[in-house]
Design goal:
Number of strands: 2
Strand content: under 5%
Membrane topology: Multi-pass membrane protein
Protein name: Leukotriene B4 receptor 2b
CATH topology: Rhopdopsin 7-helix transmembrane proteins
Structural class: mainly alpha
CATH architecture: Up-down Bundle
Order of helices and strands: HHHHHHHHEEHHHHHH
InterPro entries: Formyl_rcpt-rel, GPCR_Rhodpsn, GPCR_Rhodpsn_7TM, Leukotriene_B4_rcpt
Subcellular location: Cell membrane
Strand order of the largest sheet: 1-2
Keywords: Cell membrane, G-protein coupled receptor, Glycoprotein, Membrane, Phosphoprotein, Receptor, Transducer, Transmembrane, Transmembrane helix
Length: about 350
C-alpha cells in the first residue's frame, strides 16, 4: 500500500470517503472494550438460547403452525449471527482484523443479511396476525402452510440479494493510529460520497423504516378490528409478538440513527466544522451501536422463557415446545383456558390442526 493511500486513511481529503469509516470501529479504546463485553454476553446467552428454540421446535413439535415456522426461521437466523459474534469479539479485543479479506466481506455480509431476515420475519408475523384478526375467514386460503413456506423461501432469497452492498463495499485496509502503530481494519471501501449515502440510506430504509411502517399499519388494523368486535380477549401471544417487535426496534434504532448521521455528514465539505462534529459522533459510536443491535438476536429466547414460565414446572425442558404448540389450539372463538393460551391469537385449524392431549 502506497504512502498516499495510507495517509488517506487517517487524514480527510476532498472527494474521499471512507477515511472516518476505517477508524470508526476500532479506534476508540472505550467503545471497543464496551462492544467486546456486550458481544461476549450476547454470545453466552444467544447461542444456547436460540439452539434450544430450534431443538424444541424440530424435535418436539410434529405439527407446526405458521407462527411456529416463522419463529423457527427467526431462531435459525439469530443463532447463526450469535455464532459469528466470536469473530467480532476477537476483532474488537485485538483492535485489528486477523481473519483476511474474504472473511471480512463474508462475515459482514452474513450479519447484514441477518438484520434483514430478522425484521422481514417479524414483519411476516405481524402481517399474519393482521390477516388472522381482520380476515379470519380467509386465513386458510391466504395463509396456508404451503403458501407460508414459499413466502419464507422468497424472503431468504430477497435477504441474500439486498445484503449484497455490504459484500461489495467492504475490505481490509491498513491503518496507522496516533502512535504510528500499524493495524488492519475491516472497513467500508466507499470511493465516492454517493456510495456511502446509498448503502447506509438503503440499509435503514429497507431494513428498518419500510418494515416498521408495515408492522405499525398491521397493529393499527388489528386494534381497530378488535374494538369493532365483541371478541376482546387479551392473549399473551399478542403481547409476545408485540414485545419482539418493540425489542428489535429499540436495539436497532441507535444503529440506524448512526447510519443517518453518517449519511448526513456526506452532504458537507470534509473540512466543514459540522462534518467534523458529525464524524466525531459516528466514529466512536459505531462499535457500541452495532453491539447493541446484536442483543436483539439473543433477546427472543428470554422473551419466550418469560411467556412460557407457567409451563416450566409441569413440562420441564419441553416448556418451550408446549408454548409453541398453543399456536394450533388458540383459534377464533375458542374458549381460552390455561392449556390453550399459546403464541397465536387466531391461527386456524387449517394451519396445523389441534394436537392430541397437548402432547409436547
Amino acid at each position: 500500500m502506497s504512502n498516499a493511500t495510507r495517509s488517506r486513511l487517517t487524514i480527510p481529503q476532498n472527494g474521499t470517503v471512507g477515511n472516518h469509516e476505517d477508524r470508526s470501529v476500532v479506534s476508540n479504546d472505550f467503545s471497543t472494550t464496551l462492544g467486546a463485553v456486550i458481544l461476549g454476553l450476547v454470545f453466552l446467552l444467544g447461542v444456547p438460547g436460540n439452539l434450544f428454540i430450534v431443538w424444541s421446535i424440530l424435535a418436539r413439535i410434529k405439527r407446526r403452525s405458521v407462527t411456529t415456522l416463522l419463529i423457527l426461521n427467526l431462531a435459525c437466523a439469530d443463532g447463526l449471527l450469535m455464532v459469528l459474534t466470536i469473530f467480532f469479539i476477537v476483532y474488537l479485543t485485538m483492535q485489528t482484523w486477523v481473519f483476511g479479506d474474504a472473511m471480512c466481506k463474508c462475515l459482514f455480509y452474513l450479519c447484514n443479511a441477518n438484520m434483514y431476515a430478522s425484521i422481514f420475519l417479524i414483519t411476516l408475523m405481524s402481517v399474519h396476525r393482521m390477516v388472522a384478526v381482520v380476515m379470519p375467514r380467509s386465513l386458510s386460503t391466504l395463509v396456508s402452510k404451503k403458501v407460508v413456506r414459499r413466502v419464507i423461501w422468497c424472503t431468504w432469497v430477497l435477504v441474500m440479494l439486498i445484503a449484497i452492498p455490504s459484500l461489495v463495499f467492504r475490505d481490509v485496509r491498513e491503518d496507522h493510529d496516533e502512535k504510528n502503530r500499524t493495524r488492519h481494519v475491516c472497513a467500508p471501501n466507499h470511493t465516492k460520497p454517493t456510495h456511502e449515502r446509498f448503502q447506509y440510506a438503503f440499509e435503514t430504509v429497507s431494513g428498518f423504516i419500510l418494515p416498521y411502517t408495515v408492522i405499525i399499519t398491521c397493529y393499527v388494523l388489528i386494534l381497530r378490528r378488535l374494538r369493532q368486535t365483541k371478541f376482546r380477549r387479551t392473549v399473551r401471544s399478542e403481547k409476545l409478538i408485540l414485545a419482539i417487535v418493540v425489542m428489535f426496534g429499540l436495539f436497532w434504532l441507535p444503529y440506524h440513527v448512526i447510519n443517518m448521521i453518517q449519511v448526513a455528514a456526506q452532504w458537507y465539505d470534509p473540512k466543514s466544522p459540522i462534518r467534523e462534529k458529525l464524524d466525531n459522533i459516528t466514529r466512536p459510536s459505531r462499535a457500541v451501536t452495532s453491539a447493541l443491535a446484536f442483543i436483539s438476536s439473543c433477546a427472543n429466547p428470554i422473551l419466550y422463557t418469560f411467556a412460557g414460565k407457567s409451563y416450566i414446572k409441569k413440562n420441564g425442558f419441553a416448556f418451550m415446545a408446549r408454548l409453541f404448540e398453543g399456536t394450533s389450539l388458540d383459534q377464533t372463538g375458542t374458549k381460552k383456558t390455561k392449556e390453550t393460551v399459546g403464541l397465536s391469537t387466531l391461527d386456524s385449524a387449517n394451519d396445523s390442526g389441534p394436537l392430541q392431549n397437548g402432547r409436547a
